[in-house]
Design a protein that fits this description.
349 residues; 13 helices
Length: 349
């Protein structure tokens, strides 16, 4: 009798599944060279963030340091995102470098605005894709705050550019471009819509529905809301500003930050968790554009971001519990499959 028995093969869920997306060969063949390059980029990121931060903090630093630091951060974000997404480094990093140098050399409003937009988009997107899958709550929170740190440095860089832009148009344009870029990256990773299950599709539709509801409601209130309602909302915002010195931002609280927490958790089990992370760029995008207006107070924006983080984490952990809950008896009887991905500093494709 043959040892091979016909029938469905069973998955050994005790062994982590191999990463199912082909990755590029290392750009630097020597491990020492790769390590040196990573350390150099990290040091540049820290130094450039400190230099750009002098535009927000009253310190004895030369004024000429601000925009070159922002340009350096633009290059760092381009390097990080291109490497992580498996893109062509010679194209995108060179383009970011040329844009930064041209903006500083010419001081043209159009180039400075373009550099600020590029900085905000790249920082918001890289903040999401630099994360790793996480199974436990402490690991999820660690990845969450790594993403917040990257987005925070993007916020400082955008403020350092001091671009002459309209805040609302700038914000909407950055969110639209960042969302499109995130969709392109996730689609390129092979997480197409064909692989979405009913639960994941429900989550995505729910997030999209909440987003559309928030945008439609805010637009309706501004244009067709009654005077009493508009004045009531204005009074509420003023009261929160006077009482708490900051106001949480709804897009971060109800969409961006919860999507970041849920997406990081779902990625530890199935590739389709990337689709939830697409909406996380809305939260990081709102962060990176929050200081583009010269009239924005850094202390007010900082407190508003802290309040958004606290509330967003609470909402995200609650949604994570619901999303990861196993409903069927068969699912509860099996050990959940664990996915593995390349390291944080390795390309995803």
């Amino acid at each position: 009798m043959s040892a091979h028995q016909p029938g469905r093969r069973r998955l050994d869920t005790n062994v982590p599944a191999d990463y199912d997306v082909p990755t590029r060969a290392p750009r630097l063949g020597s491990p020492d060279s790769a390590r040196t390059a990573m350390v150099a980029v990290f040091v540049l990121w820290v130094l450039a963030t400190i230099g750009a931060g002098t535009s927000l903090v009253a310190v004895d630093a030369p004024q000429w340091l601000v925009r070159p630091s922002a340009a350096m951060l633009l290059v760092v974000f381009s390097l990080g995102l291109t490497h992580r997404a498996g893109g062509h480094m010679r194209i995108w990093s060179v383009a970011a470098t040329v844009l930064g140098i041209a903006a500083i050399a010419t001081q043209a409003s159009l180039l400075i605005s373009a550099a600020a937009i590029g900085t905000a988009v790249l920082a918001a997107t890289w903040a999401v894709v630099v994360t790793k899958p996480a199974e436990t709550v402490p690991a999820v929170l660690r990845e969450f705050f790594i993403a917040i740190s990257v987005a925070g440095s993007g916020t400082i860089a955008v403020a350092a550019w001091n671009a002459p832009v309209n805040y609302q148009r700038f914000n909407l344009f950055v969110l639209a471009v960042a969302l499109a870029l995130a969709i392109a990256i996730v689609w390129n990773l092979g997480a197409g819509l064909h692989g979405l299950g009913r639960q994941n599709l429900t989550i995505l539709l729910g997030v999209a529905g909440v987003l559309l509801l928030l945008l439609a409601y805010s637009s309706f209130v501004r244009t067709h809301g009654s005077q009493m309602l508009v004045e009531g909302l204005t009074d509420l915002v003023i009261w929160m500003r006077q009482t708490f010195r900051g106001v949480p931002r709804p897009v971060e609280v109800f969409i961006g930050f919860p999507a970041l927490i849920v997406g990081i958790s779902l990625r530890s089990q199935r590739r389709e968790g990337w689709w939830v992370l697409v909406f996380a760029v809305l939260g990081t995008g709102v962060m990176t554009t929050s200081l583009v207006s010269p009239g924005a107070y850094p202390s007010y924006i900082a407190l508003s971001t802290v309040y958004s983080i606290v509330l967003g984490v609470a909402v995200g952990l609650a949604l994570r519990h619901v999303a990861l809950r196993q409903r069927s008896r068969r699912s509860r009887a099996m050990v959940q499959e664990r996915r593995v991905e390349p390291g944080r500093l390795a390309p995803l494709k």
